[in-house]
């Protein structure tokens, strides 16, 4: 089972006035939940674990857009650093996809993959799917089922966040950064209807009001 750092349900977080917050969001945010340094340290360890398990063979790193782009970039920076500073290195290529389901905000097995090279090119490859957050897990299960039809050699999933939620299908990624409460989080490229992507990359935020979005 994947190891992770657990953020408790009663986590109080850190006061906003300790950090730089864009003025136009000051009234819409509650607390800093995970500081940037903790994110970076955890991401570095995930990179080491991935190289340990998947190293020695060409890896195709597949970023799930849009929310995963920041985590993807930081994770690959650590993997590249390991490649440059150790006796063991692994060839690495990247690709990008968007995964959409079409049932309002509810998870569904009706998943459409947008972008990326032809998935058939993944045959015989070691594939690392990089995701920002896994909630119910149903979308990722459907994506994995689609990828299995392409006959990759290996598929691993790394997600920065996994929610503790009664709606979970039971799916767990191979690598997990943090397990978080069933609350809405934004920042570090996570958004709400495309808002909040411009928050500082240094923190996660918990949304307390959506007044400016109404």
From TrEMBL:
Primary localization: cytoplasm
GO BP: GMP salvage; guanine salvage; hypoxanthine metabolic process; IMP salvage; purine ribonucleoside salvage
Catalytic activity: GMP + diphosphate = guanine + 5-phospho-alpha-D-ribose 1-diphosphate; IMP + diphosphate = hypoxanthine + 5-phospho-alpha-D-ribose 1-diphosphate
EC main group: transferase
Keywords: Cytoplasm, Glycosyltransferase, Magnesium, Metal-binding, Nucleotide-binding, Purine salvage, Transferase
Cofactor: Mg(2+)
Protein name listed in UniProt: Hypoxanthine phosphoribosyltransferase
Provenance organism: Astatotilapia calliptera
């Amino acid at each position: 089972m994947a190891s992770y750092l657990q953020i408790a349900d009663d986590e109080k977080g850190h006061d906003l006035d300790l950090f730089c917050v864009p003025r136009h969001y000051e009234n819409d945010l509650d607390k800093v939940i995970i500081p940037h340094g903790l994110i970076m340290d955890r991401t570095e360890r995930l990179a080491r674990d991935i190289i340990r398990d998947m190293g020695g063979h060409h890896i195709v790193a597949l970023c799930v857009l849009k929310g995963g782009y920041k985590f993807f970039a930081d994770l690959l920076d650590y993997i590249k650093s390991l490649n440059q500073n150790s006796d063991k290195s692994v060839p690495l290529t990247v690709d990008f996809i968007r995964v959409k389901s079409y049932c309002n905000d509810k998870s569904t097995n009706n998943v459409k993959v947008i972008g990326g090279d032809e998935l058939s090119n993944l045959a015989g490859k070691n594939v690392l799917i990089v995701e920002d957050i896994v909630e119910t897990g149903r979308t990722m299960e459907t994506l994995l089922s689609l990828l299995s039809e392409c006959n990759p050699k290996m598929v691993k999933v790394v997600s920065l966040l996994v929610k503790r939620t009664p709606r979970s299908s039971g799916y767990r990624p191979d690598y997990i950064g943090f397990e978080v409460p069933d609350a809405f989080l934004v920042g570090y490229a996570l958004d709400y209807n495309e808002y909040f992507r411009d928050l500082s990359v240094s923190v996660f935020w918990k949304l307390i009001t959506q007044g400016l979005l109404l």
